[in-house]
Amino acid sequence: MKHILFSGLIGLACLAGTTSQAASVQSYAQASAGGCGSTSTHTDPWSNSGGAVAAAKATGTSGCDMSSNAGVGAGHVGITVSGGANAGMDHGSSTGQAVARAQYTFNLATPPGANGPVGMKVNALAHGVVEARQFIASYTATATASLEAILTVSYFDWNLKRERSTDMSAKAEAFATSNSLTRNAVDSQGLDAALTSGWLTIDPTKEVKVQLHFRGGASYTAHETASGLAAALGGNTLSFAPTAFEFDATGYSVTDANASIVNNQWIDPRQSAPAVPLPAPALLLIGGLGALGALRRRG
């Protein structure tokens, strides 16, 4: 499966009097895959590059294989985990995991004469789908898939006079179990969540750190009489919302090219990328389902 490639930033025009540059941008991507005895792992550790891409693919015995991808871009992170298993001579299982994180440190632009607290809200969106399928079982076998999105905001609390952090998360899981009575088990769950920090009372002269953390995993089991497929499908993304920052007073703003934010608005840099008819993970899923369906007919 091809890497997920995130396009570069589109040109951003900084507005006079409202610019603020990130003190630091850190990114992290990790992908691992194991296919019935074969394991592959790739990690791009925390860096100040502002972007990272990791991919791993494993092909093992019993027709098991798994691919995982993770990528970090400007104001967004994304992952895919996908694979399948044909019925094999030996009992085996395959797993895959992907993690993508991006942390941005912002300095707020403040209006002249501002010397008190201000209310701030940070908004993010998480999208994705997980699917698990298990086939042709004369015993009990389960395929699983999961996605989890976490938005973390760290800031200086004006009331408490200290640094604090707040987390918001959303998760989707799919479980498909087949046995002698349920030969074809399918489970699919969507993740479509708005993650918001709620109103935070901050000191606008202090830095604000925002972390986008997206992770997913899939696993399945194959025996002589079973085939499975589990996938966190392509297009899974955690990003800033179009209105990334909100303030309860006028004159406050964030503009940062590293996060693709202009005057509190997030501009998705991927919109300028060429259109792709179908994500590679989705093609893998369709191909895997076709192969497993053919296997069932032969069985």
Helix content: under 10%
Number of strands: 15
Share in β-strands: over 45%
Give the low-confidence spans: 1-20, 274-299
Could you report the average pLDDT, rounded to the nearest whole number?
Answer: 77
Overall, the morphology is: elongated
Structural category: mainly beta
Largest sheet: 7 strands, antiparallel
Tell me the Rg in angstroms: 22 Å
Distance separating the two termini? 28 Å
Contiguous helical run count: 1
Encode the helix/strand succession as letters: EEEEEEEEEEEEEEEH
Structural account:
Keywords: Signal. It comes from Pseudooceanicola nitratireducens. InterPro entries: VPLPA-CTERM. The chain is mainly beta and 299 residues long. The protein has a domain at 63-84 and 92-103 and 124-193 and 211-237. The chain is built from 1 helix and 15 strands. It has one helix at residues 280-298, and strands spanning 24-35, 38-47, 52-59, 64-73, 76-85, 92-106, 118-135, 141-157, 162-178, 185-196, 200-202, 208-222, 227-247, 261-262, 265-266. The strands form 3 sheets. Strands 3, 4, 5, 7, 10, 11 and 13 form a 7-stranded antiparallel sheet that branches. The protein has a 6-stranded antiparallel sheet with strand order 2-1-6-12-8-9, with no helix packed on it. A hairpin with a 2-residue loop joins β4 and β5 (76-85).
Summarize the structure.
The protein is mainly β.
Keywords:
299 residues; VPLPA-CTERM protein sorting domain-containing protein; 15 strands; single chain; disordered C terminus; VPLPA-CTERM
